[in-house]
């Protein structure tokens, strides 16, 4: 599939712009004031919740290649998704272009901030923070791109003229650029924000994403260093209840390191734009909660240990009742019998919005991810005791929410490196 994706990427003019669209001012007339800088940074965050970032395009590229998810819905609905599951996709398939476009839109917005905000006369601390936020968000999109495509164009400034179709950079060059951005972001971002800025990138988010970037490159000592910094910051704790962590009421909880902010505002469809929950919601529910795509596989269900409460909080099983009180119907002929519980919005709430569940935030990085990366890095480096300690923190949270904590998820005691590799289930 990677080869097909690279072919698709070579033909795209991904930075084309038209300043006259929608009455937007040309770039030369913008970026004059601190308010302009705020709007420009906010635009990057706003784009993160769009279709190409969170719906079909992202599901196809980032989920379907695993053994843990399949297309879902009915057999004749959106059959193109099967191409990603079967690794038969070719460059003409539209979700490739969608994902590519979504990420480079984010990058273009970030580049506009990074090229123009330094010239604005404004509070120096706020300016530095905005630049750090833009670098984090650019790094996030480049991370998604390099995982999916390998060689990609590396565009670090607003493109024009002959630069509109740059050559591919090597994956190593892209990884290096991501790490540079995340180093700068971690240096310039605060540990936390006041209520009016909740959801913006923090120092912990930059460090956690850097750990994940390092993990993909098997830089285990770097993974350990970055995760230790997040752990030692004292900012984050595991949310007590795994199921409740993913509900509306607990968005941006103590476990949240970075979430894509979504919302439901009656009458404002520009804000009610996220279809993350809609495309994955239970199609057989009454009232309908969504379209029923990106459903769990039996392989995923079987990965959980007996009695693990995270199984039912990760997978919505037909014929059960959710902890929020929804009776999950048995499927219609050909429809799925399992759905993604992490994207679930209670059925009656989901249909109140124009896109079912459009207010559901997308959890990108959680403190449990940090603990498990820390456990994995320690394990790979031969540090058995710290590896077990981080792993057990995550398992203890699950154990505490079990109906039978005494018999659920017994403590892991093995120090065998190979055995520990298989126990990292968040």
Structure description:
The chain is mainly α. Among the domains are: 183 residues, Serine Threonine Protein Phosphatase 5, Tetratricopeptide repeat, CATH 1.25.40; 83 residues, no CATH class. Helices cover 45% and strands 7% of the residues. It has 17 helices and eight strands. The chain has a two-stranded antiparallel ribbon. Helix 4 packs across helix 6, helix 8 packs antiparallel against helix 9 and helix 15 packs antiparallel against helix 16. The chain is globular. It starts with a helix and ends in a 5-residue tail after the last helix.
List the helices and strands and how they pair.
Layout: H1 2-10, H2 34-47, H3 51-54, H4 56-62, E1 69-72, H5 81-85, H6 94-116, H7 124-149, E2 152-153, E3 168-169, H8 171-188, H9 203-216, H10 220-233, H11 242-245, E4 256-260, E5 293-296, H12 298-303, H13 309-314, E6 315-317, E7 338-340, H14 347-350, E8 362-366, H15 367-380, H16 384-400, H17 417-421
């Amino acid at each position: 599939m990677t080869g097909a994706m690279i072919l698709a990427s070579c033909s795209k003019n991904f930075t084309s712009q038209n300043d006259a669209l929608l009455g937007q001012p040309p770039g030369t007339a913008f970026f004059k004031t601190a308010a302009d800088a705020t709007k420009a940074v906010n635009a990057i965050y706003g784009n993160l919740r769009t279709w190409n970032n969170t719906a079909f395009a992202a599901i196809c590229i980032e989920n379907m290649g695993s053994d843990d998810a399949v297309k879902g819905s009915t057999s004749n609905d959106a059959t193109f998704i099967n191409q990603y599951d079967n690794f038969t996709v070719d460059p003409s398939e539209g979700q490739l272009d969608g994902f590519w476009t979504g990420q480079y839109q984010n990058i273009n917005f970030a580049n506009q901030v990074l090229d123009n905000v330094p010239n604005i006369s404004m509070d120096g601390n706020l300016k530095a923070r905005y630049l750090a936020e833009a670098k984090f968000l650019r790094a996030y999109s480049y991370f998604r791109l390099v995982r999916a495509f390998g060689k990609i164009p590396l565009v670090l400034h607003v493109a024009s003229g002959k630069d509109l179709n740059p050559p591919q950079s090597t994956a190593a060059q892209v990884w290096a650029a991501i790490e540079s951005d995340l180093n700068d972001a971690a240096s310039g971002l605060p540990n936390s924000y006041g209520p009016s800025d909740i959801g913006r990138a923090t120092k912990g988010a930059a460090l956690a994403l850097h750990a994940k970037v390092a993990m993909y490159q098997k830089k285990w000592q770097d993974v350990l260093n970055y995760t230790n910094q997040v752990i030692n910051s004292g900012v984050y704790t595991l949310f007590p209840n795994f199921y409740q962590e993913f509900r509306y009421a607990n968005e941006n909880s103590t476990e949240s390191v970075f979430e894509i902010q979504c919302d439901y505002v009656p009458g404002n469809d520009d804000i009610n734009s996220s279809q993350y929950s809609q495309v994955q919601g239970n199609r057989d529910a009454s009232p309908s909660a969504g379209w029923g795509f990106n459903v769990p596989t039996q392989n995923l269900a079987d990965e959980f240990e007996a009695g693990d409460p995270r199984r039912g909080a990760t997978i919505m099983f037909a014929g059960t009742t959710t902890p929020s009180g929804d009776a999950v119907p048995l499927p219609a002929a050909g429809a799925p019998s399992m759905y993604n519980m992490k994207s679930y919005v209670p059925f009656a709430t989901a249909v109140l919005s124009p896109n079912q569940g459009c207010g559901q935030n997308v959890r990108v990085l959680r403190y449990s991810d940090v603990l498990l990366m820390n456990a994995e890095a320690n394990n790979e480096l031969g540090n058995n005791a710290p590896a077990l300690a981080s792993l057990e923190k995550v398992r203890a949270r699950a154990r505490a929410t079990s109906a039978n904590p005494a018999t659920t998820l017994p403590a892991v005691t093995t120090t065998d490196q190979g055995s520990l590799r298989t126990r990292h289930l968040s």
